[in-house]
Amino acid sequence: MSKITVNRIKNYLEKTFKGKIDLTDIEKKTAEEQQKNFLSRALAAYSLTVEAGINADEAGKAVTDGYDDNGIDAIYFDRQSKNLWLIQSKFIESGTGGIDNGDVEKYAKGVKKLIDGDFARFNEKVNKLQDDILEALDDPNVKIQILFAYTGKELSSHNKASIDDLLNEQNDPEEILFFTNFNIDKVYKGLETGVGNTPINEDIMLSSWGHIEDPYKSYYGQITGTELGGLWDKYGRRLFTENIRSFLGISSVNDEIIKTIKSEPENFIYFNNGITILCESIRKKPIGGADKAIGAFHCTGIAVVNGAQTLGSIGSLNTTNPDELSKVKVLVKFISLEDSPEGFGQRITIATNTQNKVEKKDFVSLDTEQARLKIELKLENIDYHYKRTDEKVIADDHNYMLEEVAYSLACLFKNVDYSTMIKKESGRLWEDVTKEPYTDLFNQNTSAQKIIKAVRIYRFISEQMDDMAWEAEGRQRSIYRYGNAFVAHVIFQKMKKAIWADSYTDFEKFFADELPEMTGRYIQQLEDTIEAEYPDAMIVYVLRNYTKCRRLETLMV
Hints:
By secondary structure, the chain is α/β, with parallel strands linked by helices. Helix content is 48%, strand content 14%. It has helices at 3-17, 31-51, 56-61, 101-115, 124-127, 130-138, 157-170, 184-193, 225-235, 252-263, 268-271, 308-316, 322-327, 344-354, 368-378, 402-412, 416-424, 438-441, 448-471, 474-482, 484-494, 507-533, 539-542, 546-554; strands at residues 74-78, 83-90, 143-150, 177-182, 202-212, 218-224, 275-279, 281-284, 294-300, 303-306, 329-336, 383-385, 399-401. It has a seven-stranded mixed β-sheet. A four-stranded mixed β-sheet has the order 1-2-3-4. The model has no long low-confidence stretch (mean pLDDT 89).
């Protein structure tokens, strides 16, 4: 890259992020040092505007660079796309080279500390984001995006080895950490396509198209997977700036979308709900004339407001599966906001993402076992809420929720994979009401008394460990935060089987006398065993790892 390219990037960073990044910690440095620090911080923020699709103000607030940053120069939790971004950046004046390997190693150690909840050695900027980071780690669907932003051409072999070591160590046996090499080529490409609020204007080809003129102009038809893949390559998550959710990446829903594309692309249009796109304006181009078979349209201010998972999944296959994408057709609706009343676009966004939305958990309400349990629990003066409602319910002694009942029964089940599933992918517990794991938890042998005992024990253990987490820090706190389902499973397996009989009369004595001692003993044993078996692994992922939890269970005595 030429010096001109570096200067263009520098000018953009200065223009865009001046006054938006905290520099108070370097006020005593020389002007030259301040400028160097500003450019690296601005580069970290800029990478978030491109890769996470946020605006410059948000990105500026995400910068954590400074003393005791442990190599992490920016942190941003995207709740919509369920990504936690951890950035390291370096502005290189020459436009060549990479990042010092000592800085990469420092960053890797910082990532591990952060994920283990060890904030003691981080600066105030990082600690202010502690709640966001812990919220992200609590969600098993959140992926961690590690990104190196630098104005150099490529990373050294030592850099790559250090990154690979971190990825291999933590992505066992599944991918949790993902790496983005945001080098000068990507930096400059972002300037070419525009970032932030720069409008997206494109010519779109539709087949079998139709239109609505009144009261607001709209065109609908079929678009090819290839064209959608091209849009994704060019603009990425910027397409979703108006959407309720961005692209979620790897998820069960998107896995199904990708599976259909790969196995039966010709049927995709029948299985998929399509995409809704808002535009500032739409103009039919002369090509094709009035023929409805094919039409070209110039769209300004494009924003995908429904169908982000469809478009993102298609985009992820654009390079690896171009043949399949060429066979894919997707229903798409373009709505022009020209001459529409204020707030109309927002109403469309909300409506298309909420109306008639059915979640897999909703199918639980069709299971007759649930209706039976609701009646049995009502006889015990407990209201069991297993149907989705707008009623606000607080779980207490007289109100049980589907989720905690399922979690309690999952811990009670003999297979430790089910308690691990609570922390890793809880939706699988009710994904299909006709087969395991759901049918292992809810069946004719599941009684109201069994549920009451299981829920009370699960709540007790969880509350004990929550209280302990408040008093702890680092890896110990992470064990208390994420280990409740595992500890509950172990205790359930170690309890006398007679306790689960509906006729057992000494449950209250067990609950008051034996359960507290067992809880304390197995919490301590879990802590000791993890540190002995997995001293270098991040706690949150140990307790979401099926293989590791199976191993831990064998060591509980």
